[in-house]
């Protein structure tokens, strides 16, 4: 039985929403029963729970659940429940902690849904506790995206504790969640033992101090963990010392295929370490160095290794790294002798005519496919220039395009090359 949003909206007062509060609301604590999901669709179950708890029924959530019900009726499995709060394609009411508690109740015993995307909503640390309770009981949920919900350090600690128990979750995105140093260290510690998580996003924690303590612990984790395939540590304030910590671990690690250290403070000295690792490491396939400052010297270190030693790296992003023509041309030359490197992203650096000609030649000779780079050559008055195109490793991580395919391979090449990161 399905009801329209107008019919479904109750007249009862909506409980106040306070994502920053850590105390579990009485109405949520009152019912911890293990009752199975009632016969009928998720949409009807959502309506009944909202009526029972005098919670506002949100048309956006009803609409999403109706779509999931239709997919279940078709016999589909492995469904992702997507209630992202930053969707621009339809009117969105952001999910609060109270809404999230109800969603967790709906998912608790559901065997059809293996992914939950609640990025950019109003879920705080209380909501994080609901999610971790769900993950301690639900063994079918494989990936969870919490991006942009301010669960802060306390919420991060809930998730770290959960990973000590859960043995089914494979992908977890806590990027831009205002995690603290304590929770980042807790994740690094737990992952020395957890053998299930394959993809982890810890982008942009709130860290203080200049000691790069987080990279020390992450490096130790990478030495011990041989299951993690993808790691995002964007905006961790990583400098060359921190990069060395990670590189030292990568000599021993045999599982990591995708390393994202974009938006940090890594310079040419950090590339000395990375270039040496790439001579020996045979598992890394995607490296994102965007928005650092490796300059010509750093690009030359990488190009020498890629030209003569490494034959496993498939994609490299050096977007906005203050690289000039010398370094960019060196990287283009390495592609002529390296048959494995298929994707390279260079926009935001300092192009001269030699750079434009070099990448134009790679594209026209077919060595670099137009979908595998973020530049496109054009000619004006006999001179070659490069224009930006909307391709990249994770172009649509923060936003959804208003038209076209949201997860196109050319715009999100990192997710295509390393499929475990599909929902990160």
TrEMBL record:
Basic and acidic residues compositional bias, start-end: 1-12
UniProt biased composition (Low complexity): 19-30
Region Disordered: start-end pairs: 1-33
SUPFAM superfamilies registered for this protein in UniProt: RNI-like
InterPro entries linked: Leu-rich_rpt (IPR001611), LRR-containing_regulator (IPR052201), LRR_dom_sf (IPR032675)
Presence of keyword Magnesium: no
One family name in Pfam for this protein: LRR_6
Domain of life the protein comes from: Eukaryota
Keywords: Repeat
Protein name (record): Leucine rich repeat containing 34
Organism of provenance: Phocoena sinus
């Amino acid at each position: 039985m399905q009801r329209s949003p107008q019919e479904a909206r109750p007249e009862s007062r909506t409980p106040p929403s306070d994502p920053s509060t850590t105390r579990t609301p009485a109405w949520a604590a009152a019912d911890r029963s293990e009752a199975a999901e009632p016969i009928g669709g998720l949409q009807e179950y959502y309506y009944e729970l909202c009526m029972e708890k005098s919670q506002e029924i949100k048309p956006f959530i009803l609409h999403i659940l109706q779509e999931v019900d239709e997919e279940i009726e078709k016999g589909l499995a492995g469904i992702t429940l997507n209630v992202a709060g930053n969707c621009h394609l339809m009117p969105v009411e952001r999910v609060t902690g109270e809404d999230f508690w109800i969603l967790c109740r709906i998912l608790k015993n559901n065997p059809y849904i293996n992914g939950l995307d609640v990025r950019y909503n109003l879920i705080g640390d209380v909501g994080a506790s609901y999610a971790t309770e769900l993950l301690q009981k639900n063994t079918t949920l494989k990936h969870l995206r919490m991006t942009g919900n301010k669960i802060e350090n306390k919420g991060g600690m809930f998730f770290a504790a959960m990973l000590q128990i859960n043995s089914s979750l494979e992908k977890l995105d806590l990027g831009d969640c205002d995690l603290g140093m304590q929770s980042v260290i807790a994740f690094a510690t737990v992952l020395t033992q957890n053998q299930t998580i394959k993809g982890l996003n810890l982008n942009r924690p709130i860290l203080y101090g200049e000691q790069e303590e987080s990279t020390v612990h992450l490096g130790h984790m990478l030495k011990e963990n041989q299951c993690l395939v993808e790691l995002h540590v964007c905006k961790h304030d990583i400098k060359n010392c921190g990069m060395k910590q990670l590189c030292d671990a990568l000599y021993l690690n045999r599982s990591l295929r995708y390393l994202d250290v974009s938006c940090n403070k890594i310079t040419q000295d950090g590339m000395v370490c990375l270039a040496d690792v790439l001579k020996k490491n045979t598992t890394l396939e995607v490296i994102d160095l965007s928005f650092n400052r490796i300059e010509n010297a750093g690009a030359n270190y990488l190009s020498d290794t890629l030209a003569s030693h490494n034959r496993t790296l498939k994609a490299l992003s050096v977007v906005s790294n203050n690289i000039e023509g010398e370094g960019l041309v060196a990287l283009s030359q390495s592609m002529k002798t390296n048959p494995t490197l298929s994707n390279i992203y260079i926009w935001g650096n300092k192009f001269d005519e030699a750079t434009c000609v070099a990448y134009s030649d790679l594209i026209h000779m077919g060595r670099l496919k137009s979908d595998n780079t973020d530049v496109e050559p054009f000619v004006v008055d006999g001179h070659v220039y490069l224009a930006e195109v909307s391709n990249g490793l994770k172009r649509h991580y923060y936003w959804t395009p208003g038209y076209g395919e949201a997860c196109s391979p050319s715009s999100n090449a990192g997710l295509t090359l390393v499929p475990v990161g599909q929902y990160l």
